[in-house]
Amino acid sequence: MPKRPVEDATGAVVWVCCTGSIFWFGLEKIRETAGKSIRPSILSLHFTSNMIINTICVCGAGTMGSGIAQVSATAGFNTILYELNQAVLEKAKMSIEKNLQTLAEKNKITLEEKEKIFQRVHFTTDIKECIAEVIIEAVIENPETKIDLLNQLAAINSNKVIFATNTSSLSVTEIGNKILNPQQAIGMHFFNPAPLMKLVEIVKAEKTSDLVVQDVTGLARQLGKIPVICKDSPGFIVNRVARPYYIESLRLIEEAETNFETIDALLESAGFKMGPFKLMDLIGNDINYSVSCSIYEQLNNPERLRPSFIQKEKVENKELGKKTGKGYYQY
Ligand SMILES: NC(=O)c1ccc[n+]([C@@H]2O[C@H](COP(=O)([O-])OP(=O)(O)OC[C@H]3O[C@@H](n4cnc5c(N)ncnc54)[C@H](O)[C@@H]3O)[C@@H](O)[C@H]2O)c1
Questions:
Q1: Residue 244 pLDDT > 80, yes or no?
Q2: Mean pLDDT to the nearest integer, 124-143
Q3: 52-231, which class in CATH?
Q4: Residue 213: what pLDDT?
Q5: Residues 161, 189: contact at Cβ < 8 Å?
Q6: Which of 44, 83, 192, 280 can bridge 89 by disulfide, Cβ–Cβ 3.0-4.6 Å?
Q7: Domain 238-316 is of which CATH architecture?
Q8: d(CA 263, CA 186)
Q9: Distance 145 CA to ligand 1 centre (A)
Q10: Ligand 1 first shell, C-beta below 6 A
């Protein structure tokens, strides 16, 4: 597997570190001398992982894919962002540039770092260019689409490639069992917005190898995230716990008890960062509806989690939230 490219002499030392020939004490010394010229996450890179990761390919450049690609490039990885829809890809490119520019203006990164990070992302609509050590798929929440894509990628990549799915609710085991090399498939569930949210749920499927779990847990740390290992159960942890937040709020609207603005205002005043309707608009009403349906079906249709016809209407009317300019609110 190719070595991670090093950008300067300090990077070369990091590479030596990753072979394991320098002890932690040495690493700390390098950190001291390297000062701020290299990110701690890059320095700790090869101590948390069994494999050398040079390139990460993110598939789907929508709400999540775009953010995950930014995270990956910021952590120093060569990043491929693959998307079917050219217009979505262009939008992702502009969004990543804008986010990095904002960070530079806030002095969180230098302009030079901004340029370097941006240059690390290769934007493409050509699947043949999706060659990487780790593939993180963030396409629509549909098992057939994900399985089909991963199998296309398996055909052109090495059999060591890790397939991480960002699914919010689908069974990682079912996805993994239908692709080549199921031991390489794992859930890597980022949260929205990916550059800001620290948590990543790592979902071990039935056949995921322990080595892949270790690698992906290490990778999540290298990306500056906090990995939490979860069972492959419907909605994992966060989406299972969060489901009633949306469904019960929608019930109040169905029953005409109040309106969505009031629910959001009340819950925000009670301390929630975002009311459920604002949050659904941020997530995307199509994705949130798919996740609601998937969790409901996998749990054998409990009445308390029955998806709302309002969600269905939003999807049919293409009122998907922020990404289409209109959801419950206008953007
Ligand atoms: N939106 C959220 O808050 C959120 C949070 C965590 C996880 N997720 C999960 O992440 C995944 C993506 O969600 P999203 O909100 O980014 O969706 P999105 O609709 O914003 O983006 C999905 C993108 O995938 C593209 N796509 C579809 N099929 C493709 C293919 N075969 N190859 C390449 N691109 C393809 C679409 O054109 C679209 O741009 C879903 O599995 C979702 O459950 C979403």
A1: yes
A2: 98
A3: alpha beta
A4: 97
A5: no
A6: 83
A7: Orthogonal Bundle (1.10)
A8: 36
A9: 10
A10: 59-65, 82-85, 88, 138-141, 145, 149, 166-168, 189-192, 283-284, 287, 291, 323
